[in-house]
Amino acid sequence: MYAIIENGGKQYKVSEGDVVRVEKLKAEVGDEVTFRAVMASDESGVKIGKDAENVKVTAKVEAQDKFRKIIVFKYKSKKNERKKQGHRQPFTAVRIEKISL
């Protein structure tokens, strides 16, 4: 059984026991959060649209952290313009505990 959840404008395919890194949530480590399912699939078939409105995915927050640093380098040729920046995107790691149909 799996579900597709939506968070932060992105969609994630999850099943029970998965650890997923989603956009940063306002939750402490150990808290339970619920996600809205866009689609769900089990042995009886696939549920989408109105059928998937009642599907709830509960997860437990495992960590609040940042991804590895990426380098942003802007450069204009023949102008001696260079700008180097680093960026670390924050994320929340959640463990999917239950998909309730």
Write the layout of secondary structure elements.
Elements: E1 2-7, E2 10-14, E3 19-23, E4 32-42, E5 45-48, E6 56-66, E7 70-76, E8 81-87, E9 90-100
Antiparallel strand pairs: 1-2, 1-4, 3-9, 4-5, 4-6, 6-9, 7-8
Q: Please tell me what the overall shape is.
A: elongated
Main β sheet profile: 7 strands, antiparallel
Q: Would you tell me the overall average pLDDT?
A: 93
Radius of gyration (CA) equals 19 Å
Number of DSSP strands? 9
Helix content: under 10%
Beta content comes to over 45%
Summed up, the helix count is 0
What's the structural domain tally?
1
Overall description:
The chain is mainly beta. It has one domain. Helices cover 0% and strands 66% of the residues. It has strands spanning 2-7, 10-14, 19-23, 32-42, 45-48, 56-66, 70-76, 81-87, 90-100. The strands form two sheets. Strands 1, 2, 3, 4, 5, 6 and 9 form a seven-stranded antiparallel beta sheet that branches. The protein is elongated, with a radius of gyration of 19 Å. The model has no long low-confidence stretch (mean pLDDT 93).
Kindly list the characteristics that best describe this protein.
101 residues; mainly beta; seven-stranded antiparallel sheet; two-stranded antiparallel sheet; 9 strands; 0% helix; 66% strand; elongated
Can you summarize this structure?
By secondary structure, this protein is mainly beta.
